[in-house]
């Protein structure tokens, strides 16, 4: 894989207006999620602050992470690895180690070796966990290797399992309910199915203490984007983490996806996504909900749904120019910049 050249610019953050605020320069930001959605958020936020903490879901049970989880009984390292890669130092050293961490072994043709499709970073992280006996310390050492701008923490100290009830319409028009267990299976239920309910197993798993502390001390908390039921919602389903998010004095931002009608959110609008948040965490309040106008079918209904969460809806073009449902780091950073600087009302479509 060729190394990237050049560097992304840091965006200076204006000091919030008024006196007596507790915001620091740079602000302390906690971003929660998993997979590519969290990576997109981190790629933007790292342009605004060095006081950045990623809190990552630990329910992945597919691919390299799932194999290591089953064979060694460890936290699934894949989403944690991706978050570390998103925070790597923007130097030749950092980019080289990012590429090493993201590299996957490929077995020879017609061979299925034990290392096939394992990510090097997953193996490195698990090695550090075994040597140090502490998941947080292992991630700190991995972050030091990459020169990570910020820290990466698991949302829980034990692996989690996501289970959901999926509704499927039978050929004769009746609804059939099937229980689907596992993040990888739930995320791929299909366009003809509807996720009706999700649960975490164990339901009362202990949250990572360092993550709870980071949320308590944060100036801003960012939830999303990401797979709604399997990367975003789990953070609000873990009791200790949800309580910390509700109690924190930090301001809260919910970042919407660029595509709403995915396999696990078939038939759902952007407003429906917000209704899911309200259903599972009715006590949770946000200050802002950030959405690309192209992903909102009914702006009035969406603003009403945001209002029920206590939030102001903020619209801004945050997707890439190619039309794919992928967040552009600079555009997303600019949107966060406006929100952090107190000028969110000026964000425009």
How would you classify the helix and strand content by structural class?
A: alpha/beta
Task: Give a count of the beta strands, DSSP E runs of length 2 or more.
Answer: 10
- List low-confidence stretches: 1-23
Tell me the major beta sheet.
7 strands, parallel
Helicity, in percent?
25-40%
Strand content: 15-25%
Provide a count of the helices: 14
The 3D shape can be described as: globular
GO molecular function: LPPG:FO 2-phospho-L-lactate transferase activity
Region (Disordered): 1-24
GO cellular component, one term: cytoplasm
Function: Required for morphogenesis under gluconeogenic growth conditions.
Can you put this structure into words, describing what you see?
The protein is α/β, with parallel strands linked by helices and 349 residues long. Among the domains are: 59-154, no CATH class; 161-198, no CATH class. Helices cover 37% and strands 16% of the residues. The protein contains 14 helices and ten strands. It has a seven-stranded parallel β-sheet with strand order 3-2-1-7-8-9-10, sandwiched between helices. The chain has a three-stranded antiparallel β-sheet with strand order 5-4-6. Helix 3 runs antiparallel to helix 4 (92-102), helix 5 crosses helix 6 (135-146) and helix 8 packs parallel to helix 11. The longest helix is centred in the middle third of the chain and has 13 residues, at 120-132. The protein is globular. The relative contact order is 0.13.
């Amino acid at each position: 894989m060729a190394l990237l050249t050049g560097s992304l610019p840091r965006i200076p953050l204006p000091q919030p207006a008024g006196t007596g605020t507790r915001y620091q320069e740079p602000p302390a930001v906690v971003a929660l999620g998993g997979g590519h959605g969290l990576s997109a958020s981190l790629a933007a936020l790292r342009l605004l602050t060095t006081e950045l903490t990623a809190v990552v879901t630990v329910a992945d049970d597919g691919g390299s992470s799932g194999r290591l989880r089953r064979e060694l009984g460890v936290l699934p390292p894949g989403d944690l690895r991706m978050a570390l890669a998103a925070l790597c130092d923007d130097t030749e050293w950092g980019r080289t180690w990012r590429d090493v961490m993201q590299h996957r072994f490929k077995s020879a043709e017609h061979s299925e070796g034990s290392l096939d499709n394992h990510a090097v970073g997953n193996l490195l992280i698990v090695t550090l966990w075994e040597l140090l006996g502490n998941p947080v310390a292992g991630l700190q050492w991995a972050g030091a290797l990459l020169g990570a701008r910020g820290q990466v923490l698991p949302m829980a100290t034990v692996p989690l399992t996501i289970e959901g009830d999926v509704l499927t319409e039978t050929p004769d028009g009746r609804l059939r309910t099937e229980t689907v267990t596992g993040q990888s299976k739930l995320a791929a239920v299909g366009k003809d199915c509807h996720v009706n309910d999700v649960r975490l197993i164990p339901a009362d798993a202990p949250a990572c203490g360092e993550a709870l502390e980071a949320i308590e001390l944060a100036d801003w908390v960012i939830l999303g984007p990401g797979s709604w039921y399997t990367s975003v919602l789990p953070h609000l389903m873990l009791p200790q983490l949800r309580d910390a998010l509700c109690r924190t004095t930090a301001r809260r931002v919910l970042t919407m996806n660029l595509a709403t009608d995915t396999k696990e959110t078939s038939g759902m609008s952007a407003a429906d996504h917000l209704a899911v948040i309200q259903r599972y965490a009715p006590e949770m309040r946000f200050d802002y909900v950030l959405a690309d106008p192209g992903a909102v079918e009914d702006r009035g209904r969406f603003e009403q749904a945001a209002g029920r969460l206590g939030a102001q809806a903020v619209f801004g073009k945050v997707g890439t120019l190619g039309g794919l449902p992928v967040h552009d780091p600079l555009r997303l950073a600019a949107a966060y910049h406006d929100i952090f600087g107190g000028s969110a009302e000026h964000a425009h479509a």
